[in-house]
Write a structure and sequence with these properties.
Helix content is about 40%, strand content about 5%. The protein has about 240 residues and is mostly helical. The strands form 2 sheets. It has a 3-stranded parallel β-sheet. Strands 3-4 form a two-stranded antiparallel ribbon. About 35% of the residues are buried.
C-alpha cells in the first residue's frame, strides 16, 4: 500500500486503495503460481513462487522516506495497510519480505507480533519470510540488539526464515552468526529447525530437488513484449477507473 505521493517507490505497489490492492495482489499471486495452493502444494510446470514485499505499512513511512518509521493508528494499520496482506496470504502467496522500516517502534524484521501473530497465525500465511538486503543486521543498527548475533536471534525468533545476504563482507551476513546465537542461549535449535523446515518445504514444492525443467530460455523474449505492455495498460486503466 502506497498512500503518500512523496514515497519514492510508488511503482512497486498497486495504489492507495486497499480494496484494489487486495484484488490486484491476489490476481498476481494466482497468475504467478498457476492457481490456488499453499506452501506445501507443488507448483504447476512453468510457474514460480510469488513474493510480496514489503510487509507491512512500508508505504506509510513518515515523510515518504524509504525506510522511515510508520506512525499509524491500529485501525489504519489493519484497514489500510494489512488488508492486502491478508488477501495475499489467503491466495497462497509463498514468500513475504518484511519492510525496512519500523512499525509501532519495532523493526519489521524483529516484529514477532506482525510476522507470527498477524501474518502466520491470523492471516494463514504458510510460506517463507526472507529479509531484504542485510536487513536482519539493521535490527542492530536500529539499536534493538547489542550486536549482529543478537539481531540474528531476534529476527529468527520473530519469524524471519531467510537472510538475504548482500555484498562481499561476511560480517554483514547476520544469519551466519546463528550458531553463536544458539551457543549464547539467545535462540534454540528447535527455532532454527522450524525455519529450515519452511525453507526446504518451499524448495521441494518448487521442484528444485526433482530435476524438473524450468521455463525455456527462448521464453525470455516474452518479457516486456508489446502484448504484455498493452495488458498492463489495460489493467492500469481499469484500476484508475475504479479508484
Amino acid at each position: 500500500m502506497m498512500t503518500d505521493p512523496r514515497f519514492g517507490r510508488l511503482q512497486e505497489g498497486f495504489g492507495e486503495n486497499p480494496i484494489i490492492a487486495s484484488h490486484m495482489g491476489r490476481a498476481s499471486v494466482l497468475a504467478l503460481q498457476g492457481g490456488p495452493g499453499n506452501a506445501s502444494t507443488y507448483l504447476p510446470e512453468g510457474h514460480v513462487c510469488s513474493l510480496g514485499k514489503h510487509f507491512g505499512a512500508y508505504g506509510a513511512a513518515i515523510g515518504g522516506l524509504n525506510g522511515g518509521p510508520a506512525d499509524v493508528s491500529n485501525r489504519t494499520l489493519h484497514e489500510v495497510y494489512l488488508r492486502p496482506w491478508m488477501a495475499l496470504a489467503r491466495a497462497g502467496v509463498r514468500a513475504v519480505m518484511p519492510s525496512h522500516n519500523a512499525v509501532g517502534d519495532i523493526p519489521c524484521h524483529a516484529n514477532h507480533w506482525m510476522l507470527q501473530q498477524k501474518l502466520r497465525d491470523e492471516f494463514g500465511f504458510g510460506g517463507v519470510a526472507l529479509s531484504d538486503c542485510n536487513d536482519v543486521g539493521e535490527v542492530f543498527s536500529f539499536g534493538m540488539a547489542p550486536n549482529r548475533t543478537a539481531a540474528a536471534a531476534l529476527s529468527l525468533n520473530a519469524g524471519v526464515d531467510w537472510d538475504l545476504q548482500c555484498g562481499d563482507d561476511p560480517e554483514n551476513w547476520s544469519y551466519n552468526k546463528l550458531g553463536a546465537a544458539i551457543d549464547a542461549g539467545l535462540t534454540t535449535e528447535a527455532a532454527l529447525d522450524k525455519v529450515v523446515t519452511r525453507v526446504l518445504r518451499q524448495k521441494f514444492a518448487a521442484g528444485l530437488f526433482d530435476g524438473r525443467s524450468f521455463v525455456a530460455y527462448d521464453h525470455i523474449s516474452l518479457l516486456d513484449s508489446p502484448a504484455h505492455r498493452q495488458l498492463a495498460l489495460e489493467g492500469l486503466s481499469l484500476s484508475l477507473s475504479l479508484s
